[in-house]
Design a protein that fits this description.
This protein has 10 helices and 33 strands. It is globular and about 85 Å long. The longest helix is centred in the middle third of the chain and has 16 residues. The strands form 7 sheets. Strands 23, 24, 25, 27, 28, 29, 30, 31 and 33 form a 9-stranded antiparallel sheet that branches. An 8-stranded parallel sheet has the order 17-16-15-12-11-21-19-18. It has a 7-stranded mixed sheet with strand order 1-7-6-3-4-5-2, with helices on one face. 21% of the residues lie in helices and 30% in strands. It has 3 domains: 104 residues, Immunoglobulin-like (Sandwich); 297 residues, Glycosidases (TIM Barrel); 97 residues, Immunoglobulin-like (Sandwich). Strand 30 and strand 31 form a beta hairpin. The chain is of the alpha/beta class and 532 residues long.
Length: 532
């Protein structure tokens, strides 16, 4: 009888529409429901809480979480506009059967939704806007002193990076000899005596605030759940504690549209888990995440089988794969998923062989990955007097690559929306693009003095018009080549210019050419079909 009365009251209220004070939220925003409930005992273990959301077309079951002090929350990110209703479910009467409604409006400017896999090997936001990944690594930045975290945000705001890899739990570094992490994820006594059945809500409130700030900057947060270098005991939880941790984290953070899940950093160096454990945890993330954010796992010495269904994209550590343009493509063919080389060694000056790339080599590796149809991640490993490295704790960028990566990102954002793919992957490994429309040829460490205009046959016919530009990837310049290039068939494989024109180059390393089809108006034919 009580439930029927509540339902009648809810129905009458719903008929009043917006005038009744229903909240509104933008599409792909975060609707948060907060309820007061039991605080005694251990709510993390003893209380089950969630809600069912529906707009009449789609129904989504969303887990809730305990936020301490008798407060329970549910976060949901709606993927459609219109009227949404919810009903809470719990094993406690104070929290179950609560009915409500909210209205979802069109997304605000700049809100393109979560990033998803697009065109097999690439990414796009939910509204179809392409996402061309130019990532960086700032593992422990949320555990640094507050003023350093604020400096990191200012640095990111002026940087080219649109994705940041970051640890969810602290790891010790020599820098922490000067300070202790201000918060810890579990109740207990630092650094080793933890109660893994009780989370510290203050720790997660701080972390999710940083996630929101990254979102405001247009940056994806690639959150690493497990870490072999923790040394505080978080890496040795048993299977029950692991599952409880995963479910809590997904419930708290999964509604933020800029979240990506990375199951582990260098998973194979975490000796307390087997591959079966990683599969179990990966499937768990997929199962308990109603928003289905992107999921990956990162390797050390042993490459994971990224063909597993719970993995949405490849997160690869392999610097050698991007030393030459032709190597990076091979992983695409194995798993037919987007490939992100999240770790290709770091730009820096250090005794570690993985942290001493020159700026030129870092930029080179990005370009090798780009023309192979893959994506690359950055690291900056310069220690300053005031700060540890950017890769460890954020702060300032000290290397030379970041401005050049901003230049590359501009080139990427001017490329076709569907993404860059190898054009003739077993022969011309230096060229990626879209056949008959767009070509990006990167010469790498070679120093040619000229390039003969030549296009692989796919998508090309006689009489097409193209413009050519010379790109200096280090000096960040784009120089148009005078005149138009008109295609004629050369042989069974290639087309050349009708006048057999040759483009003069500088003989410097790190040069590229960009070739774009143009229409009758002389402008790039971004929407022209390859053979029209």
């Amino acid at each position: 009888m009580k439930y029927i009365c509540c339902f009648i009251l809810f129905t009458l209220t719903a008929l009043c529409g917006v005038a009744a004070g229903f909240s509104t939220i933008e599409k792909w925003g975060v609707f948060e429901l907060e309820l007061k409930g039991p605080a005694g005992g251990n709510p993390f273990l003893e209380v089950r809480f969630g809600a069912v959301f529906t707009d009449g077309n789609t129904t989504v079951t969303v887990p809730g979480f305990y936020d301490g002090d008798g407060i329970y929350k549910i976060r949901f990110s709606p993927g459609a506009t219109g009227d949404w209703r919810y009903e809470t479910k719990s094993n406690r009467w104070e929290l179950t059967g609560k009915l409500g409604k909210f209205i979802v409006t069109s997304p605000a400017s700049g809100n393109h939704g979560p990033v998803q896999v697009q065109n097999t090997f690439h990414f796009a936001y939910a509204d179809g806007t392409p996402f061309k990944q130019v990532g960086t690594t700032i593992y422990n930045w949320t555990d640094a002193p507050e003023e350093l975290q604020e400096e990191t945000l200012r640095t990111l705001a002026a940087s080219p990076f649109n994705k940041a890899r970051m640890l969810l739990t602290p790891q010790p570094t020599p820098y922490q000899n000067h300070f202790a992490p201000p918060r810890w994820p579990f109740a207990g006594t630092p650094p080793y005596a933890w109660d893994f059945s009780r989370f510290n809500p203050d720790y997660f409130r701080h972390f999710e605030n940083r996630i929101r700030q990254l979102s405001d900057l247009g940056i994806q947060a690639d959150v690493i759940l497990f870490n072999p270098y923790g040394k505080f005991g978080f890496e040795t939880m048993d299977a029950v504690a692991d599952e409880r941790y995963v479910r809590y984290v997904v419930a708290r953070l999964g509604a933020y549209r800029n979240i990506w899940w990375s199951l582990a950093n260098e998973y194979d160096f975490l000796r307390t888990k087997t591959e079966a454990d990683w599969d179990r945890l990966g499937n768990l993330v997929q199962e308990c995440d109603p928003h289905q954010r992107l999921r990956s796992i990162h390797n050390g010495a042993i490459i994971y089988d990224h063909g597993k269904s719970w993995i949405t994209h490849v997160s690869m550590q392999n610097g050698a794969a991007v030393e030459e343009p032709g190597r990076a493509e091979m992983y695409r063919g194995v798993w037919r998923k987007p490939v992100v080389y999240d770790e290709v060694k770091y730009e820096g000056v250090t005794q570690y062989r993985w942290g001493n790339l020159t700026g030129q080599e870092m930029v080179h590796r990005f370009w090798c990955g780009t023309v192979a149809g893959t994506y690359v991640g950055h690291g900056d490993y310069f220690t300053t007097v005031e700060e540890d490295t950017w890769t460890s704790f954020g702060g300032k960028l000290s290397g030379q690559s970041a401005p050049r990566l901003a230049f590359l990102r501009k080139v990427l954002e001017e490329s076709p929306a569907q993404g860059i793919d190898p054009i003739d992957k077993w022969q011309d490994v230096n060229t990626g693009g879209v056949p008959g429309l767009y070509y990006l040829t990167y010469f790498g460490q070679a120093t040619p003095l000229e390039w003969r205009f030549r296009l692989y046959k796919n998508g090309v016919i006689d009489g097409q018009h193209y413009q050519v530009e010379i790109i200096d990837t280090w000096d960040m310049s784009i120089t148009p080549v005078e005149g138009e290039f008109v295609t004629k068939k050369l042989d069974n494989y290639h087309y050349v210019d009708v006048a057999e024109r040759v483009v003069k180059l500088s003989g410097k390393p790190g040069m590229a050419v960009r070739v774009r089809r143009i229409g009758q108006d002389g402008k790039p034919a971004a929407t022209v079909l390859p053979n029209d």
